[in-house]
Amino acid sequence: MQYVAPIGVGLLYAHLMSLVREPHRRRLNAVMVAGAGAAYLSGGGLGGWEFAFTAVLTYVAYRGLDSWAFIGVAWLLHTAWDIVHHVKGNPIIPFAHSSSLGCAICDPVIALWCFAGGKTPKELLAWVRRAGREGERRVAEPAAALSDA
Predict the structure, then answer these.
(1) Which tens digits make up the pLDDT trace of 106-117?
(2) Distance CA 101, CA 54 (A)
């Protein structure tokens, strides 16, 4: 359950955020990931590196105000920081030993949603269907060209 629940949290996050209309959804997510970047500051488990990481993530999140891709990159950077904290033994929630591991599992789910453009579930389904149809056409076209030759 420790590995499945964070996936559910990431999906729930994406679903709830999809209720916010664009462009506010993208901007809100940029602010959210910037906040996530500062989450480890209070623990200070990595000393001055916590400030350096927060500065980098703040810049990437700022770029995310206009780009879903930058927001996705920011969530992946946070994933890497979660892993470092989990391995070092300085979890994001001091009394929950595996909290950084859970965050490291959750964050890539959110990043994937961001790389897909932060779409609503309905938009995602239409996007996947359209991509499937285009893929079928790409496979069928070379095969048709070969049979004509």
Answers:
(1) 999 999 999 999
(2) 19
